[in-house]
Design brief:
five-stranded antiparallel beta sheet; single chain; 405 residues; 52% helix; alpha+beta
Length: 405
């Protein structure tokens, strides 16, 4: 295909096409080349024109250098900045040698990429602005993170203080319970002590006498029964007050409830009837004996406090599938729906100021949850309250071995 055909093909392409001879004179070109030369350089082209001499000195030097390299056999690719009025045109230059041993020529393609370069410049400017914004935003985020870290540290400190305060309140609640227990136990221990004292006094009168042996035998029985009762009371208190926090003890829930009832009974008015009905022989759970004493005593204590005058507290014990169900049902004042929904919240109480801090049921619920159980409260205002507790029973195989032994 001849040069003429090439020019025809490239005529409407927007590319500026020209051919230079070995003297760097333009010998062939397409209409866009002629158009740019006239509009931009004011040069009217014709074949054989010395276009290099009509360029600015700096541009002539650059273009002349490019042509020298091309005529020497090198392919040249460059971006040329060409000043035009108040603008700077960006031209993509491609020079390729035309093989001709006698008369070497240079084939030139020029493409106006001004718009592309302007867009690239705008993109670079945008990227720089974006980097600046990102840096500013990063600094702001770093500052915000620092402030958040400081806030978190303060919050952790507040939480630690709150936890310490809560632990102190729980200890105070337990000490208050121990005070209640102590008052009841003093009365409870006093009865067998009176029996023992009376029996000892009667034995003293029989000192040295050989008759009435049967009477003395009865007094020994009374003394032994009193000592056993005192031992049971002290054992109950020790189970309640010890400081173990392990959850791997075998806990006999029936015995724990009996201990709590025994301790609480002396605090009850004579008008309140408290009963325990065990409908199962299996009441062993894995957990912490002292903590379960604490939980059940709180619930029973709440029940007796809700009763004014005559009333009943019924404790039921039975197993449901592989769980132990404990129900504490009282005939007390009950709670409204709103009070019932908040009953397990820490520090919520329906008691008058100074009577309680509202931690009893909250602590009990937490203890039951730690034992893998669930606590539910159902109450009707002026009719009473039922607290239902489900605890996972120890496995049946253990119960089977236990009942056979």
């Amino acid at each position: 295909m001849g040069n003429t055909n090439i020019f025809e093909l490239l005529e409407n392409s927007g590319l500026l096409v020209g051919v230079f001879d070995c003297n760097k004179k333009l010998i062939e070109y397409n209409p866009p080349f002629a158009y740019y030369a006239e509009i931009i350089g004011g040069i009217k082209l014709k074949s054989g024109v010395d276009i290099m001499s009509k360029l600015d000195a700096k541009l002539e030097l650059r273009f002349s250098g490019f042509l020298d390299r091309c005529l020497a056999g090198e392919k040249v690719r460059e971006i040329i900045q060409y000043p035009f009025r108040s603008l700077t045109l960006h031209l993509r230059l491609f020079l390729s040698p035309i093989n001709d041993e006698t008369h070497p020529k240079a084939f030139m393609l020029l493409e106006d990429v001004t718009d592309f370069c302007e867009m690239q410049n705008q993109l670079d400017l945008y990227n720089r602005e974006l980097e600046k914004l990102v840096l500013e935003r990063s600094n702001q985020l770093a500052l915000a993170n620092t402030e958040l870290l400081i806030t978190n540290l303060k919050l952790e400190e507040s939480i630690a203080n709150l936890k310490l305060t809560q632990e102190q309140l729980i200890r105070q609640e337990k000490m208050a319970q121990l005070g209640t227990l102590s008052a009841g136990l003093c009365h409870e221990i006093n009865n067998p002590l009176n029996f023992i004292n009376g029996a000892v006094e009667l034995l003293r009168r029989y000192d040295g006498q050989r008759d009435n042996f049967a009477d003395r035998k009865e007094y020994f029985r009374i003394i032994k029964a009193g000592i056993v009762r005192i031992s049971e009371i002290v054992s109950s208190l020790s189970l309640f007050s010890r400081n173990s926090f392990d959850l791997n003890e075998m806990c006999d829930v029936k015995r724990i409830l009996s201990n709590c009832i025994s301790i609480l009974r002396n605090k009850l008015s004579k008008e309140i009837k408290l009963t325990l009905k065990a409908q199962t022989k299996f009441s062993l759970v894995l957990g912490n004996v002292s903590e379960l004493h604490h939980a059940f005593f709180n619930i029973l204590n709440n029940a007796q406090q809700s009763i004014i005058g005559e009333g009943t507290i019924e404790v039921r014990l039975k197993h449901v599938e592989n769980e132990l169900l404990i129900e504490v049902i009282d005939s007390g004042d009950g709670m409204s729906q709103t009070e019932q929904e908040r009953a397990l919240d820490p520090f919520f109480t329906t008691k008058p100021p100074g009577v309680g801090v509202g931690l009893g049921l909250s602590i009990s619920n937490k203890i039951i949850e730690q034992h893998g159980g669930r606590l539910k409260i159902t109450s009707i205002l002026k009719k009473g309250t039922q607290v239902s507790i489900l605890l996972p029973l120890f496995n049946d195989e253990f119960h089977n071995r236990l009942t056979k032994s």
